[in-house]
From TrEMBL:
Reaction(s) catalysed by this chain's protein: UDP-alpha-D-glucose + 2 NAD(+) + H2O = UDP-alpha-D-glucuronate + 2 NADH + 3 H(+)
Xref: InterPro entries: 6-PGluconate_DH-like_C_sf, NAD(P)-bd_dom_sf, UDP-Glc/GDP-Man, UDP-Glc/GDP-Man_DH_C, UDP-Glc/GDP-Man_DH_C_sf, UDP-Glc/GDP-Man_DH_dimer, UDP-Glc/GDP-Man_DH_N, UDPglc_DH_bac
Native source species: Neobacillus novalis
Binding site for NAD(+): 30, 35, 86, 121, 155, 263, 327
UniProt keywords, alphabetically: NAD, Oxidoreductase
This protein's name: UDP-glucose 6-dehydrogenase
Lineage: Bacteria, Bacillati, Bacillota, Bacilli, Bacillales
EC number annotated for this UniProt entry: 1.1.1.22
Class in the EC hierarchy, top level: oxidoreductase
Amino acid sequence: MKITVAGAGYVGLVTSACLAELGHQVTCIDIQREKIDMLQNGRSPIYEPGLESLLVKNLRNGKLDFTVDAHHAYSNVDIIFIAVGTPEIHGGSVDLKYIHVVSHTIAHYIENDVIVCTKSTVPIGTNDLIKQIIHSRKPPKLHAEVVANPEFLREGSAVFDFFHGDRIVIGTDNPKAVSIMEQLYLPLKIPIITTDIKSAEMIKYASNAFLATKISFINEIANLCEKVGANIEEVAFGIGHDKRIGHDFLKAGIGFGGSCFPKDTKALVELSGSVEHRFELLEAVMKVNNRQQSVPVLKAKETIGSLQDKKVTLLGLAFKPDTDDVRESASLRIINELLEEGAVVRAYDPIAIPNAKRILGNTIEYSSDIRVALHEAELAIIATDWEQIKHVPLEVYCTHMKDSIVIDGRNCYSLQEIQKYPITYFSIGRPYVFKDRPNDSVVKESGE
Ligand SMILES: NC(=O)C1=CN([C@@H]2O[C@H](COP(=O)(O)OP(=O)(O)OC[C@H]3O[C@@H](n4cnc5c(N)ncnc54)[C@H](O)[C@@H]3O)[C@@H](O)[C@H]2O)C=CC1
Ligand SMILES: O=C(O)[C@H]1O[C@H](OP(=O)(O)OP(=O)(O)OC[C@H]2O[C@@H](n3ccc(=O)[nH]c3=O)[C@H](O)[C@@H]2O)[C@H](O)[C@@H](O)[C@@H]1O
């Protein structure tokens, strides 16, 4: 099939590369010329494991091309995927300006019957709006069918997720569009759920809201574990064995970040308000998450008192491992709070430093070498569970830091291992370990 993907961000690029890999002829269009120039030269503007090699391979074999030319992109294709951004505006509602513009452009340039498929996460009712825009402006003799096809990929494993997703959701009431979309996705052997447009839109928000709820729930249980002396890892393992609960998304930490959970939970709360329904559960999920992101700095103050002029090293800037994305990363919140307290901050990340620098500028120091980042630090905070961080030998904290106090926001180390070293160690939902132990085998509980 001939396919165009509008938007060369995470979703657009992964969709383009993977559909080309499946043998389709794909054009990816973006309004940012620099992105398209990079892509035409075989470089990915984002870090995503496996993506650049797929882009390059399909660019070279002619299955994929990149353009800023709307006529070239939209004039003669079977399916157009919309994968433009839907960022948050004040109050949490969704900014649909990119959706509006792309819908107008599509309507203007199409020259044959086409399916317009929305991958962007859009509030319920938006696909009807896209339909209206396109139908009111397209050449009257052409048929354009709008389909909701929400995306469920995770950053860091997006290429894998495309080929091994749990389900594909197709929202349309047009049987011909269903059959074309099924034909497109059939080779993936992923269960396909067909439904109406609004339910498809809601499936996306409800999925993200449910996963965010699971995270805030386990973080609250973790906070309770610290108070009563239980261990969240044991608890999560225990409850996860119940198939109705499952093991996934029960990793306690310093809350969820990223470009979607914070934005989509806010959007759903906002959307509920607009139809006079107060989504109190989700409001609490967001509140718990905000509080959880502040846990490391609270623990730091409890431990060493004033942070004024204290040298603090932050390990990890990306919102999760295997991505250079720092959007809504807990690290940014932690850094701002540390700076407000007067701390001197140095941060390590294997790949996200350039993106963090664009936001934080020279307010902190950066190092892509963990040992250099930890040198002479009085406190270290682990914010991202990168493999590079998890595999730092514990003696590195003892030998490089001035005072080996570690606040591990992602529970990267086993308590048994930590106890072998003179490290004061706070993690999330687990007993604290103090380096000045009268008896080396004692693990003190929180609050003792
Ligand atoms: N990032 C993720 O992991 C996931 C994102 N989503 C959703 O997918 C959508 C896109 O997200 P990302 O890829 O992260 O966004 P992004 O912000 O990384 O990329 C969006 C791209 O669209 C381009 N664009 C804007 N207007 C355009 C137009 N008229 N024509 C062509 N290109 C245009 C922008 O220049 C930008 O390159 C959002 O709705 C998001 O919520 C859904 C699942 C996963
Ligand atoms: O709509 C989206 O954009 C995407 O949002 C999430 O994907 P993503 O944000 O890439 O990453 P996740 O792996 O879900 O992690 C999100 C945040 O939750 C945190 N998290 C995740 C899992 C967990 O058990 N505990 C936890 O704190 C992570 O550290 C991270 O900050 C969803 O998992 C995807 O299905 C969805 O498509």
